[in-house]
Amino acid sequence: MLLNFCEDRPLAKNVNVNLKIIRYYERRGLLSEPPRNKSGYRLYCTKVLRRIEFIKRSQSLGFSLQEISGLLSVKVESDKTCAYVKQRVRSKLIDIEKKIKTLQ
């Protein structure tokens, strides 16, 4: 289902990010460029909204965009499994615990 957030409420406001961030995610390959309507407005589906929310949550947990890209690739690349994701998350948790010890 495609939603045109441009006519209702802009996508950037729906996910509470700056429009430049959305374009940056597109350039980094985290989001694919959306189709456009006849007027040239970008058409986004709810899947894109959820993907941006995932990216922002992951960043707030300390994941870099490169790491997030790896996590997102699990859906695309069949050779990556849930075990891969668990390993990446465990690794990030270890990094965070090390930072906490350093700060203490």
Describe the structure.
By secondary structure, the protein is mainly α. The protein has 2 domains: 1-60, Multidrug-efflux Transporter Regulator, Chain: A, Domain 2, CATH 1.10.1660.10; 62-104. It is built from 5 helices and 2 strands; from the N terminus they run βααβααα. Strands 1-2 form a two-stranded antiparallel ribbon. The radius of gyration is 16 Å and the shape is globular. The N and C termini lie far apart (49 Å).
Would you identify the CATH architecture of the largest domain? Orthogonal Bundle
Cα-to-Cα separation, first versus last residue? 49 Å
Structural class: mainly alpha
Assembly state of the chains shown: single chain
Please specify the SSE layout and strand pairing.
Layout: E1 2-3, H1 11-14, H2 19-28, E2 44-45, H3 46-60, H4 65-76, H5 82-103
Antiparallel strand pairs: 1-2
Quick gist of this model?
This protein has 104 residues and is mainly alpha-helical. The chain folds into 2 domains: 1-60, Multidrug-efflux Transporter Regulator, Chain: A, Domain 2; 62-104. It is built from 5 helices and 2 strands.
Please tag this protein with its features.
single chain; 104 residues; mainly alpha; Multidrug-efflux Transporter Regulator, Chain: A, Domain 2; 2 domains; two-stranded antiparallel sheet; 2 strands; 61% helix; 4% strand; disordered N terminus
